[in-house]
Amino acid sequence: MPRVVVGVLSTVLVALLLPLPSIPAAAIVLAAGVDGESAPGQRNPARRGPEVSVIRTTGSLPADVVVQAANVVGVTAVAEVDTETVRLMDTSAGVGWASGFGVAFDLYGVDPATYADVVPAAGALDQLGDGEVVLSATAARQRGIGPGDWIALHDGRRLAVVGTIAAGLIDGAGGVVTRGTLQGRTRYALVAHGVSDGVPAALDAIVAPIPRTLVRTVGAAPWSIGWRTVASLTALEDALGPLPYRPAAGRSIVLGQAVDVVDAEVPILGRVRCHAAIIEPLRQALGAIEQDGLADLVDPTDYAGCHSPRLIAAGGPISRHAFGIAVDLNASTNGFGVAPTMDLRIVEHFSAAGFVWGGDWPVPDGMHFEWHPDA
After folding, report:
1. DSSP label of 310
2. How many C-alpha atoms does 242 have within 13 Å on its Cβ side?
């Protein structure tokens, strides 16, 4: 039977005391730069591993789903991934943000040994312990830190940086911690299997009775977009710069620096207020829709906006609308959580212009088109 970790997340975390513990000499270093590169003497993170299908949910994945997936004929390993979006407040190198401001930062919690069964090049995570973090190479570069440094989170936790890993091996997350370090939920199960077997169909049958849970086959790591259907926060920071913020009342947030938002004219919708980076892709998508005689499928009076400094939900992670990179179209007939009515020809044109569509998400958001720098 493949190795499976079915852990119970700790609900109480003890803050790390200062000074930080010394970093062991055998600090983890995997990937000195971008995806596919490895540090001298390290295993190559681009080495092809098994095919991977991802079971993803919006709640917390039931433990029995993982057990059932592990028993499917052809499955060689299953790894659970917990997720938590935190605010990164400071690092040992300093951040330069005003007091109380931080940037959204995705952490993945894994059992290192089991994760390495699914992503063989991630075997160096074996040394990762509670209260420590292995940063993605992208996040380490953005912060100017590495092994021996630390990051401080909004809830007072301070994590010792003990290494780096290629971002494509963790699907663009900012860093990896042990499952016991996180306060998040088990969002994913990564299922390793052969290329030509019937595993994905069997997994579909397992999750069919579970609301808001989907299976997607993403192939072998490293992943550029992987199972994510939105741009990672580290990818957005590379493309657009950091967006420090602090929560305000309800879903509102206060931004710590100006976003490059502009007012511009685009086909069909007329005047919009979005991040400058998406104006031309938005014109491309809407212009193609217009040229194909499909303009009547987009109602300009039912456009629900672009830039909006807010959280997805009160107390939740930051909305991509805060960056000004998402537009909501035909809002009244494509509400959150209901079956989308968006014409798929509209989806095709937006996809060609570099947008992902919320109608494909486990909880559909059919009005939502979001620019992805890697799409």
Report:
1. B
2. 20
| Number of helices followed by number of strands (H, E) in the chain | 7, 16
Q: pLDDT 10s digit of each residue in the chain, 375 long?
A: 444 433 322 322 222 223 333 333 333 334 333 333 333 333 344 456 799 999 999 889 999 999 999 999 999 999 999 999 999 999 999 998 998 999 999 999 999 999 999 999 898 798 899 999 999 999 999 999 999 999 999 999 999 999 999 999 999 999 999 998 988 789 999 999 998 779 999 999 999 999 889 999 999 999 877 777 788 999 999 999 999 999 999 999 999 988 999 999 999 999 999 999 999 999 999 999 999 999 999 999 999 999 999 999 888 889 999 999 999 999 999 999 999 999 999 999 999 999 999 998 888 999 999 999 876
Between CA 129 and CA 140 the distance in angstroms is 18
Tokens found for residue 136? 């993605």
- 182: tokens are 């996180």
pTM (predicted TM-score): 0.83
